[in-house]
Amino acid sequence: MKKILVIGASFIGLILLLVIAASIIIMLKVDRLFIAAQMSKALNRQVYIEEINVNIFSLVSGIEIKNVGISNFKTPQQLASLQGKPVAPADLFAGMESLRFKVKFLPLLRGEIDLNEFVLYSPVINISRDRQGALNIDDLLKARGKKPIPEEKKPGQEPSRPLSVDDLPLAIKVGQVGMRNGTINYYDGQAGQTFQIYKLTTLAYDIEIDPKDLEKKDIVKLKMGMGVKTVGPMKTGSVQSFDVTFDATGHLIPFDVKTRLLDPEAVLRLSVPDGEITGLQIFNSIAALPILGDYLGQYISFLKGKQQWSNSRETGADLRYKAGKAQLKNGKLALKEADFLFDGGMNTKSKALDMNLNMVMRKEVNDKVREALAKKIEAAIKSPEVKKYTDSNQLAQAAMQPMLNKDDMIDLKFNVGGTTAKTNVRLVQPQLNSLGDIAKNSAGGILTGAGVKAGKELLGEERGKVLDSVHDLFKKK
Are 366 and 396 in contact (CB under 8 A)? Predict the structure, then answer.
C-alpha cells in the first residue's frame, strides 16, 4: 500500500510538474504585442490586442484575450507605422470583445483532444463587395495579384479524396465552440444593398468524434439564434425588405457512418418568433392569381403588403439538410389574417423549389368575402328577368363552398415551383369556376325553375310533377 501511495503521489507530482512547465512556456510565449505582430504579418492587416490574461495556471483555467481589432488590408509600410496602435473605427474589418480558450490537459496524455471552450464574445465583422465584384477578404483567400498555379497531375496519381474520419489522428471531444452576440455587416456594392446579421449566437457543443467508435460518437449538437435584416429596400431578389429573428436547436452528423467520409447532415428545428417581410414574391404570386382576385378581392390583397408577427411560438419548421438539398417539414407561418402551412424542398445549388403551401384564412373573414362575392355575382347577372328569381347570397354561399374546410374556414392549397429568384405558384385545390360561369349556369337553373313553377300553375300540381324531373335534369347538366 505504501508503494502504491508513493507511485500515485509521484504520478500526480509529475502531472503537476508538466502542467506548471507548460504554463510557464505559455506565459513566456503568449505576449499581446508579439501575437499582434505575427497576426499582422500573416493577415496583411493591422491587429491590435488590448489584453491577454495568462498566468501560471492558464493551462488549467484557460486563456482570455480581450478587445481585439483587425483592420482592412494594409501595405507593409502602413503596418509598420500602425504597429501597436488601436484600429480606427472606420477601418475596422473585424473585432471582438473577448476570446476564451480552454483545453483539458490530462486527455492530451491519452491521445485525445478535449477542448472545454473556444468562444468569441461580441465579435463584429464587416464584409463588403465593390462594384467590380472584389471582396474585402479576397486577400485572405488568395495571394494578391497572383493567379493560383494549377497542380500538374502526375501519371498514375490518384485524385484527391474527401476527408475521412480515419484521417483524424485523435478522438475529438469539445465542450463548446462558437460565438455569442455577434454582428456581421455585409455591403454589396454591385447591388447597392446592405444586410446585417445581429445578436448572432451560434454554439456547437457536446462534440464527440471518435474514429474507433463512429456509430456512437459522430455528433455535433447545435444551438443558434440570430436576427437577419436588410438595411434599406432591396433592388432585386424575392423580397423587398425583411427583418427576421431565428432560433435553432438540433445536431450535425459530420461523417457518413457507412463511407466514413466527411458528408455533413444537419437536423434542426427552426423557430421564427419575430419577423417583418415586405414584398415576398411567393405571396405576390398568390395575390396575382386572377381567380383568387375574383373570389377574395381585397381580402387577399394583404399578401402584397408588409407581413409582421411577434412572439410567435408556432412559426417555424423542421429542417434536414444534406448534400445541397434542404427538406422542410411541419412548416408554419402564423399571420394575423391567415396561417400558412408548408413542406417541401429546395436545392441550394440550383435554387430550385418544390414546395406545398396551404393557406388557411381566419374564419372572421367569411361573411365579408360572402357579401363581396354576392355583389359581384349579382353584377354579373345582366338580365332583369333573371334577377327576379336570383338570391345572390345563396349563390355566393354555393360559390364559396369548395373553398371551405370542415371547420368552415377558407382553405387553399398551392404548389410552389421555379426558383427562389422567380417563383411559380399554382392553385391546386379547390378547382374554382369563374364568376361568369357561375352566373350563367345559375341563370339557366333559375329560368328552368321559373318555368316549372309556371307550368305547375297551368297543368295543376299532380300533372306538373313531371316538370320537376325536367328541372333536375337541367341542374345535373
Answer: no
For the chain, how many structural domains are there in total?
A: 1
The 3-state DSSP class for residue 33 equals helix
Are 217 and 210 a contacting pair, CB within 8 Å?
yes
CA distance 391 to 298: 23
Distance from C-alpha of 280 to C-alpha of 416, rounded to nearest angstrom: 13
- Nearest-5° Cα angle at 260, 256 to 264: 35
Within a 10 A sphere around the Cβ of 3, how many other Cβ atoms? 7
The answer to the question of residue 332 being in a domain is no
* Contact call for residues 286 and 303 (beta carbons, < 8 A): yes
Residue 101 has a CB neighbour count (10 Å cut-off) of 15
- In angstroms, rounded to a whole number, what is the distance separating the alpha carbons of residues 39 and 165? 30
User: Grid coordinates in use for 80?
Assistant: 509598420
In a domain, 178, yes or no: no
| Polymer length in residues for the chain | 477
Residue 388: Cβ-neighbour burial (10 angstroms; 0-12, 13-18, 19+): exposed
Distance, in Å, from the CA atom of 216 to the CA atom of 222, rounded to the nearest integer, reads: 17
**pLDDT tens by residue, 16-43:** 444 444 444 444 455 677 778 878 888 8
* CA neighbor of 128 nearest in space, from 70, 193, 213, 68: 193
CA distance 257 to 248: 25
pLDDT at 27: 46
Q: Rounded to whole angstroms, how far apart are CA atoms 448 and 444? A: 6
What would the grid cell of residue 292 be?
A: 383568387
Handedness of CA 75, 81, 87, 89 (dihedral sign): negative
In this structure, what DSSP letter does residue 463 have? Answer: T
Task: Considering only CA atoms, give the Rg of the chain.
Answer: 34
Residue 442 lies in a domain: yes
Cβ atoms 271, 228 nearer than 8 A: no
Domain that holds residue 468: 364-408+433-476
Q: What mean pLDDT comes out for the span 173-184?
A: 89
Task: Convert the pLDDT of each residue in 423-452 to its tens digit.
Answer: 899 999 998 887 767 666 655 554 445 544
Whether residue 317 is contained in a domain is answered as no
Q: Which amino acid is at 6?
A: V
How many Cα neighbours within 13 Å face the side chain of 356?
9
How far, in Å, CA of 172 to CA of 321, rounded? 23
DSSP 8-class letter at 145: T
User: What single DSSP character describes residue 410?
Assistant: B
